[in-house]
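Researcher: I'm preparing a figure for a lab meeting and need a structural model of a single chain. I don't have an experimental structure, so a prediction will have to do for now. The sequence is pasted below. Please return the structure as tokens so I can convert it later.
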Amino acid sequence: MELRSINPTSGKTLKRYSVPGPSRVDQMIRATFRAQKTWKGWPPGDRASLLDQAARILKERSRDLGKLMALEMGKPMTQGIAEAEKCASACLYYSANAERFLAPEPVETDASQSMVVQEPLGIVLGVMPWNFPFWQVFRFAVPTLAAGNGVLLKHASCVPGCATAIEKIFLEAGFPAGLFRTLLVPSGQVPAILSHPLVSAVSLTGSTGAGKDIARRAGALLKKAVLELGGSDAYLVLEDADLEMAAETCVKSRLINNGESCIAAKRFIVVEDVFDEFLEKFVSRMASRKMGDPLDPSTEVGPLARADLRKSLHLQVRKSIRLGARCVLGGSIPEGPGAFYPPTVLTRVKKGMPAFDEELFGPVAALIRARDEKQAIAMANDSSFGLGAAVFTRDLERGLRIARTELEAGNCFVNGLVKSDPRLPFGGVKQSGYGRELGSYGIREFVNIKTVWIR
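Model: Understood. Here is the structure written out token by token.
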């Protein structure tokens, strides 16, 4: 059995990778277990210091890594370079802060001394997606390793080149051999790996369906799970918004990573008073974005990662149109090679349509008209997802109120596109999952928070 790396721009196979059998996977897990037993004894500051070396490698090779992402999953190369550099920023953040985050916390009780300490759980399995093939891994793995755990990476089967490159980066940075291990296996082997007695926990970034399956299996095994799942992020544009800025920001958020992002804006809920004006500005900007070869520095929208993903997206668009949505831009599969799909705008979108209810994983925007702020908020929250949301208004107190108390999501932004940041916790609610990555919260997900009491 083998995994194939396929270029979505040309459809040609880049490389073939052999899949290890169950006995070999067991050997690899046991090697990671042995490495972690030594690693957890390192002082937190010494563990974190290796992240500086990883950051250096990422920065030095950002162009090569960006090219690799472009070739394997179609990301525009300029965005891939930025992704590698963002991974470096996460390494530097935890290098500077991990020791402080993991420091014992004294607590006054009836004991002569009592405290809370944090110890690593052991081996954490990371089941990661293809859309941000470096960032998704690093944002999970960096705090997990810094906390003293070992990591097994089961990456998406369509990006094996990225998966092996990440393991090499950690090795070259000086992390113990086997501590971070890439397992080039198909998804069907994940249950057996999760069930392995030496695996303590799991983190999955992926679809809601995959998250439910992992949650069920982890729950039966009583193993900790963190799930970052799908999203149908709503951006609210109110009547007092800066429409030029809002339109530019909304288009950028919808098209980043070819629209293949769980936290990309997908539903744009615009109040009646400014709907027509915003629509004109939005469509003009969507139409101007250049679609083409992701290796071309001027390309802003590359191909989708796989042909089957394009087919699924197009079916969602066509069904929405059959149910009454209006396509004002794009909406047709272009001729020629590559899994390209053009920037597409749908209006007259309502509940009951895929464009409202489902996650559209590609460059398709749904514009929704609302009477006023109250209805816009209700529409935003009328979703099974709760990953991110944003509101555009010149009244910052109004924006803060809506973001802080009205929107049902894990990440709420005012006058900006929703994004992850190493300094802030990241995750969702409802069908978008549970648990948090990044910030001080991310490093504490896979630790034993232990009470120590002394008389």
